[in-house]
Specification:
Length: 305
């Protein structure tokens, strides 16, 4: 079963990388170095903000989904947290977008930073919906949705950036379209199990777990995004654009290896929970006479299949 999951993950990852690579080439050609650097900078700032505000909840979703906790409560808590992020970031950046543009992009971007604010809760819901699918070991569905989202991303770039000439705004909207497809593909599968609802007890457990893994999430986000933010303080956005393209090519191998971690994590949790449940289960009654060896053998607890 694990071998099949790894195979599906490799196929999905390779297909996603190929489509994403084509989309990145199109973006670099049609946006130019400066606008490509601005787009990467906006997505990096939004990604770091989302990681900080998510307080580890996406990883908590994997953990509690793997333990077969109430799927409706996990969805409801995630939707509530995503709505809170929208209420926090969208009005704040709507009021402060000029100052944020001056701080991070040498005054560029203007009102487009409001789209970045909208991407923060959208990306959070994307992560939590996907991780709930992973926690339930639906690897085939996850990889199919990931490939479809990359196709939508590429088509949106061709439509908005190449054909309509929307520039950086088109790149941001294409990113939002890819996240929306992942959410729309994941939620119906989960909602068939249970309606969404708020569960304060479970939300408290998720937040406590999230705080434990938040430090690692922050360091990972900084490792993959903070360099772009720092670079723009010292170099023009055109050079940031060249750097982002070179970085994307250099990190293809790393990107290929990273997605296996959540699959192994969710499957390991399932196995651990099953073994714990088996150890807590009282032994089945059996006959101890020598005349019934088969019954003694059948009473031996099974830890897995």
């Amino acid at each position: 079963m694990l071998g099949r999951s790894v195979f599906l993950n490799i196929v999905g990852t390779v297909a996603s990388l190929l489509i994403g690579f084509v989309a990145s080439v199109v973006l670099a050609r049609w946006l130019g170095p400066a606008d490509r650097g601005l787009l990467a900078l906006m997505l990096s700032v939004g990604g770091i903000a989302m990681t900080l505000a998510a307080v580890g909840l996406p990883l908590a979703v994997v953990y509690f989904s793997s333990r077969n906790e109430a799927p409706g409560a996990i969805v409801g808590n995630s939707l509530a947290w995503g709505a809170a992020l929208a209420l926090l970031f969208v009005p704040a950046i709507l009021l402060l977008h000029e100052q944020i543009a001056d701080l991070f992009a040498r005054g560029r971007g203007g009102s487009l930073w409001v789209i970045v604010a909208a991407l923060i809760p959208l990306t959070f819901l994307d992560w939590t919906a996907n991780n709930q699918i992973l926690g339930r070991l639906r690897f085939g569905l996850f990889n199919a949705l990931r490939v479809l989202s990359k196709m939508v991303y590429l088509l949106a770039i061709l439509l908005l950036v190449v054909w309509l000439g929307a520039g950086v705004a088109g790149g941001l909207v294409a990113t939002a379209a890819a996240s929306l497809l992942m959410i729309a593909g994941s939620l119906p599968v989960i909602l068939r199990l249970e309606r969404p609802r708020l569960d304060r007890r479970l939300l408290g457990d998720m937040l406590r777990y999230g705080r434990k893994v938040q430090v690692g999430s922050i360091f990972e986000a900084l490792n993959y995004r903070f360099d772009v933010v720092v670079l723009q303080f010292f170099r023009p956005l055109s050079q940031v654009g060249y750097y982002v393209v070179a970085q994307m090519i250099a990190e293809l191998v790393i990107t290929l290896s990273r997605p296996h971690s959540n699959r192994v994590f969710s499957r390991s949790l399932r196995t651990t929970e099953a073994m714990s449940a088996s150890s807590r289960r009282p032994p089945a009654p059996c006959t101890t006479t020598a005349s019934s060896p088969r019954r003694r053998l059948s009473a031996t607890p099974r830890l897995g299949r």
